[in-house]
């Protein structure tokens, strides 16, 4: 079913019948718009809404008109069907007056994106604001827009005629090319309607994925702290190609990474080896369970310098670390290297994986990516990380920890953990990926 508007049949596009979102329009009704142009805004808003699947349990719509002061036309929970909304907009009264966009933004945040007005933010429903303005604001907008964005509300700005790009950028969410529209006159609004709807629908889907990803990671983090059992070996490249200053970045990362786990004899245990021309045993799995002692040991790590024999180091941790690991818990190796090895890495990594050890690899800088692909477990998008500089290493901690935790929990808790995460995996498109993690654990 579609809605006929001015001879045009509007059917839902892109946003599926299952799409859920709370969308509030903030419409400029100031004197600078003019009555004839305000009618163009009415038709544009109606056209956008006509392409959405409006219902109390799907997409909800709210509308604020602003000039000297903002005014609630209707809230997110006022109307439950599209026809009533379109009928209201056809008869929308033009306010006239000044242009106080900042007040309108603050009003929208405090009076519309709240539970009493129908917002479902607490239920993890994406929150979208669409701002339509025709000129410069007579008040400040930056802080109000920032507060909206900090609350997780995605803001689209549509500037008409005299609305400057600087104003639109102050308000809109990033990336700007996805959230800002600027047209030369009011008649041109109709021409951007399909593009606006496409981007709104895409933003809704991406926002929901972000929300679900955060919840999913919280489940993993909590479960990891409570129940995870693993023997983790960190294998750190300490060769001359690393450099002393970059080695300090690696040291900082090691501190943060080990600190994120619940280290206990029956939970997570860690060991660490360095390598350059040859491997160096720093401490074996489980040698340090007290974090204070562990951090002191990390502070005392010596930067070794020399060549890079990664294959020899992989053999070393297989023979001296994982041979002493618990057989009943997952083994994890995390290799941190710039990727340039003087010896063969493929056969040693295959033999390590054959023990059931999962190998994560962090490539630092511009090292040989193809050789490192032969080390990491598959799928490589889950087990192989690549960053351009050592300064970026600190930003990997959470992502690496979550992927290590997921791998560990999936192996140790099996179907129980998989079923817990199943809805998240399906929505995020991770179902097939994580099946591969499970089935390819011992691939040669």
Describe the structure.
With 444 residues, the chain is an alpha/beta fold. It contains 16 helices and 14 strands. It folds into two domains: 13-211, 3-Layer(aba) Sandwich (Rossmann fold), CATH 3.40.50.410; 228-439, 3-Layer(aba) Sandwich (Rossmann fold). The strands form three sheets. It has a six-stranded mixed sheet, sandwiched between helices. Strands 11-10-9-12-13-14 form a six-stranded mixed sheet, sandwiched between helices. Helix 1 (35-50) runs antiparallel to helix 2 (82-90), helix 7 packs across helix 14 and helix 7 (193-227) runs antiparallel to helix 15. It is elongated and about 80 Å long. Keywords: Collagen, Glycoprotein, Membrane, Repeat, Secreted, Signal, Transmembrane, Transmembrane helix.
Strand-helix topology:
Layout lengths: L2 E3 L2 E3 L10 E8 L6 H16 L8 E8 L3 E5 L7 H9 L10 H11 L15 E7 L8 H9 L3 E7 L4 H7 L4 H4 E4 L9 H35 L2 E8 L6 H16 L8 E8 L3 E5 L7 H9 L10 H11 L10 E7 L8 H9 L2 E8 L4 H5 L6 H4 E4 L9 H17 L1 H14 L2 H9 L5
Parallel strand pairs: 3-4, 3-6, 6-7, 7-8, 9-10, 9-12, 12-13, 13-14
Antiparallel strand pairs: 1-2, 4-5, 10-11
């Amino acid at each position: 079913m579609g809605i006929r508007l001015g001879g045009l049949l509007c059917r839902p596009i892109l946003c599926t019948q299952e799409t859920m979102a709370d969308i509030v329009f903030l419409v400029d009704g100031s004197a600078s718009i003019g009555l004839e142009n305000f009618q163009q805004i009415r038709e544009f808003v109606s056209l956008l809404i006509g392409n959405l699947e409006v219902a109390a349990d799907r997409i909800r719509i709210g509308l604020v008109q602003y000039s000297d002061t903002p005014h609630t036309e209707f809230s997110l929970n006022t109307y439950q069907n599209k026809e009533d909304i379109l009928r209201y907009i056809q008869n929308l009264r033009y306010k006239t007056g000044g242009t106080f966009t900042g007040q309108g933004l603050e009003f929208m945040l405090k009076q519309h994106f709240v539970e009493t007005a129908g917002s479902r933010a607490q239920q993890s429903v994406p929150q979208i604001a669409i701002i339509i303005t025709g000129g410069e604001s007579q008040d400040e907008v930056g802080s109000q827009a920032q507060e909206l964005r900090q609350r997780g509300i995605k803001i689209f700005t549509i500037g008409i005629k005299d609305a400057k790009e600087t104003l639109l950028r102050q308000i809109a969410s990033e990336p700007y090319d996805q959230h800002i529209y600027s047209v030369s006159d009011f008649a041109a609004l109709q021409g951007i309607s399909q593009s606006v709807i496409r981007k709104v629908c895409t933003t809704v889907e991406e926002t929901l994925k972000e929300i679900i990803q955060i919840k999913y990671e919280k489940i993993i983090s909590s479960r990891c702290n409570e129940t995870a059992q693993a023997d983790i070996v960190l294998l750190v490249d300490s060769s001359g190609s690393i450099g002393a200053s970059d080695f300090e970045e690696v040291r900082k990362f090691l501190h943060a990474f080990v600190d994120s786990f619940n280290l206990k004899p029956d939970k997570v245990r860690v060991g660490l080896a360095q390598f350059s021309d040859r491997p160096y045993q720093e401490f074996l799995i489980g040698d340090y369970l007290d974090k204070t002692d562990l951090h002191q040991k990390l502070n005392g790590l010596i930067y070794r310098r020399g060549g890079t024999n990664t294959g020899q180091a992989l053999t070393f941790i297989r023979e001296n670390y994982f041979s002493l690991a618990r057989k009943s818990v997952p083994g994890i190796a995390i290799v941190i290297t710039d990727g340039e090895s003087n010896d063969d890495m493929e056969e040693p990594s295959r033999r390590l994986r054959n023990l059931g050890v999962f190998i994560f690899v962090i490539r630092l800088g511009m090292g040989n990516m193809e050789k490192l692909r032969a080390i990491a477990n598959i799928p490589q998008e889950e087990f192989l990380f690549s960053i351009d500089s050592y300064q970026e290493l600190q930003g990997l901690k959470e992502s690496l920890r979550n992927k290590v935790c997921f791998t560990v929990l999936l192996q140790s808790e099996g179907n129980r953990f998989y079923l817990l995460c199943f809805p998240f995996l399906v929505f995020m498109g991770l179902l097939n990926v994580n099946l591969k993690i499970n089935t390819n654990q011992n691939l040669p």
